[in-house]
Amino acid sequence: MEKVSVTSSDGVEIATYEAGNPDGPEVLFLHGICQSHLAWRAQLTDKALTSQLRMVAIDLRGHGLSGKPAGKASYEDPRWAGDIAAVIAAKGLRRPVVVAWSYAGRVITDYLRAHGDSALAGINFVAAMAKTDPATLGPKRVHLLNMVAEDLDENIAATRGFVRACFEAQPSQQDYETILAYNMMVPRDIRAHLLARTANPGDIIATLTVPVLASHGAQDAIILPNMSEFIVAQAKHATLSLYPGAGHTPFAEAAPRFNRELAEFVKACAA
Asked: For the CA atoms of 80, 86, 87, 88, what is the dihedral angle to 10 degrees?
């Protein structure tokens, strides 16, 4: 994959990675809290997808190889919208389909609040936090709350538990170690800033005019499937896709089905 740094509106460097067909329909992947672009490895290396699609994944600010500015202000609402707008412009994306997983549901709603959806072809919400609502949070989210512990041993233990809780079908030991490593790249203070943001009322979903696909693992214990049910109920042109036997990462746990449905969704958005 080709790595290119994009400078956001406040000067933070956002790491972007590209794979696939440069002339194909475009997809922009946004990962969840404490993750990285490597979360999308099963998509970015899939032969069928790379032959059809131009795929761009990023490391969100504070994550992976992107800039990690200090201070809560660097993680407030306008910053995320600026990051996504800067990536779309710098990469020359022409109305991409955005795939937003978990915390990236908040990131893309920040973008939508500032810019609307006219520059997008569609949105695939994947177990995505589209609003702040305790009723949509699963019991294993407690690991995430403990990942801001100042005690390093407690912090690491919580991160290990969180990574395991993201999967109903557990990854290989090698994949688990890789995921744990990039989770630990996000400093404790930045984790706290991400969790301390103001509430998101979720009102932006009802304003969407582009097609929406809500993908969710039926056994997700981090964000419950009723979050995706909310998205489908609010959006004007939306479809719900539940994955039996999958947890918080259907794109990894059921990659063949996820990739097939993503390709079909992108094709429909381009029609």
From this structure: 110
Residues 6+ apart with CB under 8 A from 156: 184
pLDDT band at 117 (very low <50, low <70, confident <90, very high): very high
Q: If DSSP codes are grouped into helix, strand and coil, which group holds residue 191? A: helix
What is the Cα–Cα distance from 85 to 30, expressed in whole angstroms? Answer: 13
Residue with tokens 């719900």: 240
Domain count, the chain: 1
Q: Which of 251, 161, 197 is nearest to 81 (CA)?
A: 197
DSSP structure class, residue 198: P
Instruction: Tell me the backbone φ, ψ of residue 55, rounded to 5 degrees.
Output: -115, 130
Q: For the chain, what is the mean pLDDT? A: 97
Share of the chain above pLDDT 70, in %: 100
Asked if 57 and 44 count as a contact pair (C-beta separation under 8 A), the reply is: yes
Helix (H) or strand (E) holding 216: strand 212-217
CA distance 27 to 97: 5
For residue 207, give both structure tokens. Answer: 């304003």
pLDDT in tens, 177-208: 999 999 999 999 999 999 999 999 999 999 99
What is the model's pLDDT at position 11? 97
Looking up residue 80, the CATH number of its domain turns out to be: 3.40.50.1820
User: Nearest to residue 91, comparing CAs of 169, 4, 182?
Assistant: 4
Question: Residue 174: how many CB atoms within 10 A of its CB?
Answer: 8
Structural domain contains residue 106? yes
Q: Indicate the Cα dihedral angle 204, 206, 212, 214, nearest 10°.
A: 80
